[in-house]
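Aim 2 progress update. The chain analyzed this quarter is reproduced below.
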Amino acid sequence: MSFKAAAVQMCSGVDPVKNAAAMARLVREAAAQGATYVQTPEMTGMLQRDRAAARAVLADEAHDIIVKTGSELAREFGIHMHVGSTAIALADGKIANRGFLFGPDGRILNRYDKIHMFDVDLDNGESWRESAAYTAGSEARVLSLPFAEMGFAICYDVRFPALFRAQAMAGAEVMTVPAAFTKQTGEAHWEILLRARAIENGVFVIAAAQAGRHEDGRETFGHSMIIDPWGTVLASAGATGEAVIVAEIDPAAVKAAHDKIPNLRNGREFSVEKAAGAVAGGVAA
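Predicted structure tokens:
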């Protein structure tokens, strides 16, 4: 059955209470447009580069305001509410970059902890070590919902196609990629990566993004997108500021794409051998 999906673009600051209020306002706008599945970006609750300041306001899952607000919004509008991720304090002192999917009754249907940590050094001098503060997840899941089979990823996970292929092979029809892509990497790769994951797996991709210059000084790329199994961008947002984008999702289009290009069925196991190249005076055997 088809459904209307929304991706909510935000510019989260350092105050979880203010971010929860912004999320609620935008989700209400999405619900007013008829969306029955609504996704928010990675780190909906807070973007804060100062780790000491971040830890001072972090809460565990049972007391987190974003989790509480997400549950309330799902119940208020009778929707599937997907908090793309928020920072959750763990008992061992570290943090989980955790996404939540709430059912229409407000219950948590799925948790997903970001698997791949963003540990990079960029050309513009930005350096990120997500693994220094966050505990990586280790479990992917495909969730059977009334309207589709859904797979989960967060931001940097999009650069690891094996995660998406495994979920597609498990039956995923919709892949979710909430993100806070940096401006530099977003300009180079954001749309290409999202469309590639959609095309190579024949699935819909829904990616709500952080956008603009944040209170902590970072700048994110924005351009939230909803993409169909043929790689067509059905809806997109701009580079900065809040936005709500909506598109109709028909899982039948997934089967149609798989029938045209049956690469999931045609894949074969193979081995990789590292062979010697040419050598002086001849060719290696």
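The mean pLDDT is 94. The first strand starts at residue 3 and ends at 9. These observations will guide the mutagenesis experiments scheduled for the next reporting period.
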